[in-house]
Amino acid sequence: xxxxxxxxxxxxxxxSLHVSQETRALITARNSNAPTALLDxxxxxxxxxxxxxxxxxxxxxxxxxxxxTASDIAVQVEEPNVVFCGDxxxxxxxxxxxDAQPSQLTRSVKFLRDLQGVRYVPGHGTVASPDELDRYxxxxxxxxxxARRAIASGDxxxxxxxxxxxxxxxxxxxxxxxxxxxxxxxxxMKDLAL
Length: 194
Description:
- This protein has helices spanning 6-10, 21-30, 36-41, 102-114, 130-153, 157-163, 180-193, and strands spanning 18-19, 43-44, 52-54, 59-65, 72-77, 82-90, 119-124.
- It is an alpha/beta fold.
């Protein structure tokens, strides 16, 4: 987060930050240059509530979800009905599971998909339609299935990741790192062992 990011936005008199406790802790722990003073002043989003912010000409709903991390927040704007999904949704790009809780991720994406009349702004990729979110859910299910097969056959995540292929019917997906398949399957294997 550079000087032009959160710091630049907060300089506006009407700007306030909203953050979850877990996200604030992760940012502070993992980023030596994190704007911790700004995050200390941010309003904490209670994960047991669904706050609605009145911006005058529109309302914004903060939805506490889980899956990409232990603490994700999706932001739903009314009129037009758009959901900013953060890294819960990757459109056309294979997701990073580094902190993922895969079963929670799938549940959260299904919840977002069930919202009516929505366009989705993913954390990575282009704006997504409901059909593209359906395609993403098939991808997530495919990774779960690969992990279940690896567990049943006694394969390590590394072996299963090397063998995994995105189903052809889902088309092209960008892969940022060749280890993303292994990481995703390992996350599922850990999740399924709990």
